[in-house]
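Why this split exists: single-chain examples teach little about how molecules sit against one another. For that reason, every record in the complexes split bundles all components of an assembly together and asks for one structure covering all of them. Below is a record exactly as it appears in the raw files.
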Amino acid sequence: MKNMLSVRKILGLTLVLAMFTGLLSGCGETGKDKNTFTFATWAAGTELEEFQAIIDKVNAEANGEYKIEVLSIPSDYYVKISTKIAAKNCPDFFWMTQELISKYAQMGALADISQQFQNSQVLTPDLYYEGVIASAMYNGSYWGLPWIANPLIVYYNKDMFEELGVAMPEPEDDWTWEEFLDVCRAFSGKQYNGNTVYGTVVDGWPNIETFIWAGGGDIIAADGQTILLGDEAAQKGMGYLHTIVKENLSPRYAEVASLGDNNVWFEKQRVAMYFGGMQDNFETKVAAMNAEEQFEIGYAPMPMCDDGGAWSFDWTASTVMAKSLEGNELAYRALEAVTQAFFEWKIAPPVKGSLDNIVEINPRKEGAMDTIAYTMEYARSANYIPEWSDINDKLWYNLYVSLLNDADFDYKGKMNEIQQYSEELVSKRK
Amino acid sequence: MSQKRQRAGFYFILPWLIGLCLFTALPMVAAVYISMTDWDIVGNAEFVGLGNYITLFQEEEFIRSLWVTVRYAVIAVPLIIATSLTIAVLVSKNHKGTGVFRVIYYMPAIVSGVAVAIVFKWILDPSYGLLNGILAFFRIQGPDWLYDPDWVLPSYLIMAVWGAGGGLLTYLAALKDIPEDLYGAAMIDGANTLQKVRYITVPLMTPIIFYNLVLGIIGAFRKFTDAYVLGGAGKEGNFYMVYLYEEAFGHYRMGYATALAWVLFVIILLLTFVVNWTKKYWVYSE
Amino acid sequence: MGRVRLVLWYIVVTLGAVIMLLPFAWMISTSFKAESEIFTVPIRWLPSRITLQNYVKALDVVPIFKCMLNTLIIAIPKIVGEVFVSALVAFGFARFDFKGRNTMFMIMLATMMLPYEVTMIPTFMVWSGLGFSDSYVPLVLPAFCGSASFIFFLRMYFETVPRDYEEAAWIDGARNLTVFRTVFLPLAKPALVTICLWSFMGTWNDLLGQLIYIDSQEKYTIQLALASFSSMTGETLWGPLMAASFMALIPVIALLLYAQKYFMEGVKMGGIKG
């Protein structure tokens, strides 16, 4: 072929291109200032724009004392975080979900901020809700500043309750799990808007913690050592889940995904009640619907557990600091300032006395405020330990899913088995 | 050819050799070491010798995920090759619109695994999915697919067949190289289409089938993305790589996961040796 | 081919094509749906009213075209490197009988068998140590040493070229590179086009590699852009995600349509031989 480039020309071109890409991306880091901090976030897209605006504001208020730069990780967040830590390229600040804090603390990736936190003039542990701040604690130290809380409440469809003649729960109702199941039974198999409806939807959500607490039990004791799965109370709690499956109070497990996510069952008016985080914005979604699809939303707290508390599972994420910055006063000030700025961003702020922020963040939550105020007192996370990912795997695959698929599954026997497995794991902790 | 000329071949493979030393060898050597530690990615690593390899063979999940993967590979690899070869023969003829058909059959290969997984979640949905909708049309009650342990494997096989067009390009490129006069000669001898395929097309395609067989084995054993997104009831969708990934990044046991990777490496390598050994019996070469 | 068989052929091929296209049809249809119509029971195949709001929203959330351009900046040098160098190396493996050839070929195959997930972090550590963080270099540079699967494919291809075909050139006293250029490259055109496409799609669809090496948003690629439509505290924007996925697919389909005609131009080696 005559028009083909000569091999030498191609080789030359190849080399030039390779160098070109090298130049284009610049080589390596530019020297970073000591008062510049990188903040890694999983926020992406629209959420990232909001995040950036908050950081810009914090930077402006810092008056040049420090500067925070944003690093967005839109996917596989912890893969990138851990890879960066391994390469000694750890972001200075980053978000961390409650289940992983003990793990990362144990692996030595996080700065212990107890000293600065307890002595702070601005944000101290006692300003937080007790159940929420516990999620940033492990081994007696604080490893992060919670910036968001999202405890569960019960959302319900007022129109459906009315139409089918079922008594509605109060915004601060002290209903028990038995009473909750009775309400579910009242809906089971009934027709509404031409569809068969259910009391609620359970498909792995709400999480297993919710059910185990329901019986007054727990998974791991506060000492971070003792496993409680074999206890009568924990097993009684799983019994409530067993009843839901056995009596078909929720759509079948295989059926739930057909609508996309479990919350769609509530939005499409196929279930009467839904366990949702305070942050869920059903109000906005319903407002955006066509008039004939809209319905009125009611709110109730979580049913009271057998130990008398209306425990509400809370998902909290914290802002944490790289180990290398332990004791760095400037870095801690920046961490504190940025965490406080988040309190005005998402529902619900994890600190006491900030309930008014919720209505400012989302005015449509007005109607839920009584329930929210009541629930915040009972919001808590489980006692997560470094072995949690393994224990949780067993709880999910070997217990929860098995029970969802087969109502006659011997869940008590399985819980005893996982109890033993977990005890062994904990005993091997370094 | 002279010795000297033969040696010139070495210079041709030199760029790859440089790449091997610069970019591949170091991480691989590192991986050997990592597999003998308890490295958790974030913290420090402690040398544990062959501990990970000993643990691994006692893990129930290792055996199970390997079994899930082997079972899939044994059925999927030949199935994919047969399907994509059939498609290639079908669209190799130059009729009007063939070009468009080629592109359509190849399309499953151009989307990323995550997108395929999301779409199949809908297609395989037990209640309202497309597949069960079609079955219902024929008055057949469809299974629960990914939610029924017995139907997880068939679900993944359906996805594999759907994506079989991915091998199309290689087969088409090879089909185009089959001399027309061979078919002409066969026609004179009175061969029918099937005979032509059996005695001309397939033998001349064997090098490319061999290539796809080796890559198919590697691909099947390293199946990950769609399985990771979709899972499957009763851990039946827990393919080997999903297990490995979870161990590495879900439980932060990079040392153990790397040992898993080396076991996988050895399995694939042995299979490749076997396939390579059979090469001389069935692969056509000039 | 008889008329009846031609009609039969069209029926079979069209049926298969419909099956292949269904998921894409669903994706495209969803991208034009209003939010309330995306998850309905039973599935709604066509939007009741076509809306462009998902496209507007998608372009608003991430600069998709800029991200596509960024991906091209990675993809183009990668194609040049990967395809050309792989051809050179494959030629070496296919047509010379130097010492250790088979061993090295097995080593090359072996490099494809170790999962990337476990070498990813050590590799990242090396690049990071060399100062290449937030850079395209680690994504592009290795391409200039060829790609194992491409080399494997091309070697297979080169091996089927009749010996006597090149022998003539060598007897004429042509140099190795000349033989490579005048005999093998033109012969392998369909195969080269094939791996060009693979190389391009490899870059276009790679998420994990790009995610690890790229930090700043100005450098985001198309897959990172697509990943931005869902997050842990935000909601997945299904409509805009489908719209963006469709937009990301258009360049690939266009390229494929353009490239497919090269498969019909394959040089008939046997024809020359006989």
